[in-house]
Design goal:
seven-stranded antiparallel β-sheet
Length: about 350
């Protein structure tokens, strides 16, 4: 479905003002370029001893000491609000680099020296598409998103969960799996992605939270990659069920849910998204107003998606949209009755 690497788009002055107003701007150290100064690397292996796409990177002594100090400060700002007096026991234990994807992320492992507990956050190259994706998820999804940025540096808190590809491989055939609830959640996840035009929800770009309840296990699917926010021109990119690696989940849905039930769950999720949007309606309108004026995709992508959604919704107004922001705004208003 996606044949070319996505372009990065700078944060415009208008968007920067929005981020500042709503607390998404922080006077953090600009560390991304300095993190690229690593001199050695080795493949990172997961706890099962399997190689991953990450590299653990090392720095010369003087560079490492300065970097670790600044990275610890960023973590404290992200999690504690900047009070270093209660964080002297936190150390940066490991830095991993991902050469994959559009944002070329660094994953920072921070450890509490008192109890050995570790947490993670990510340092990425700033990209307007990704930040719009983060902000729309924050406003419209069941979960809040913790992030902020400055200049070319974007900081994101870790989103915990079982990676989608691992969930499909290791959990989907588990006899204890509540297949109906999994199917229901994936239907709702598909709605959340499509309504706000978050694309490329392949199984490596979301995680599954498995939550024991008093009688039955609950499931929540959360996106972890936001680069493809209203960028591609193909409609199928925004519909998770059409990706090949999601086929087992799509089959699960077709096996355990009939059409009236699927339609019920889709309408239920749109209603919930609408209820989440109304308390934040001024902020959402402000975001979409800025988004309408930003360039977030090539013109041919805009034309293609506008025509596809015009046909899908049977609404000529989509074909008149000239930016991805206009398309996203009309899509949200149309599907959530805002």
């Amino acid at each position: 479905m996606i044949t070319k690497k996505k372009e990065n788009y700078p944060v415009s002055a208008r968007f920067g003002q929005y981020l500042y107003r709503y607390g998404r701007y922080s006077e953090i150290p600009l560390v991304y370029d300095d993190l690229l100064r690593f001199t050695e690397s080795m493949p990172y292996e997961n706890p099962a001893g399997e190689e991953t796409l990450w590299l653990t990177v090392m720095y010369p002594g003087e560079v490492r000491a300065d970097l670790h100090k600044r990275l610890a400060r960023i973590y404290v700002e992200l999690k504690i609000g900047g009070d270093m007096s209660v964080a002297e026991h936190l150390i940066v234990e490991r830095i991993d680099f991902g050469s994959f994807g559009n944002s070329h992320p660094f994953r920072i492992r921070v450890t509490n020296q008192f109890n050995g507990n570790s947490d993670y956050y990510y340092v990425k190259r700033s990209d307007a598409s990704r930040i719009y994706g983060l902000e729309l998820t924050h406003l419209l999804s069941p979960n809040r998103i913790n992030y902020f940025g400055r200049g070319n540096t974007l900081i994101e808190a870790h989103i915990a969960g079982v990676p989608g590809d691992v969930f499909i491989r290791d959990h989907l055939s588990d006899p204890r799996l509540n297949a109906v609830r999994v199917a229901k959640e994936f239907v709702k996840f598909g709605v959340r992605s499509f309504v706000r035009l978050l694309g490329d929800m392949r199984s490596v770009n979301y995680v599954v939270n498995i939550i024991p309840d008093f009688e039955e296990t609950q499931y929540r699917v959360r996106p972890i990659d936001f680069d493809q926010q209203c960028y591609e021109g193909k409609l199928k990119v925004y519909r998770a069920q059409f990706f090949e690696d999601n086929r087992p989940v799509d089959q699960l849905v077709r096996t355990h849910l009939n059409t009236p039930t699927i339609l019920q769950y889709q309408k239920e999720e749109r209603a919930r998204m609408g209820r989440r949007a109304w308390p934040e309606i001024n902020r959402l309108r402000g975001l979409l107003g800025v988004m309408k004026r930003d360039t977030l995709a090539p013109e041919e992508h805009v034309r293609s998606l506008a025509l596809s959604l015009s046909e899908y919704h049977r609404m000529p107004a989509f074909a008149e949209c000239r930016t991805m922001g206009e398309i996203t705004s009309l899509q949200i208003r149309t599907m959530l009755d805002l």
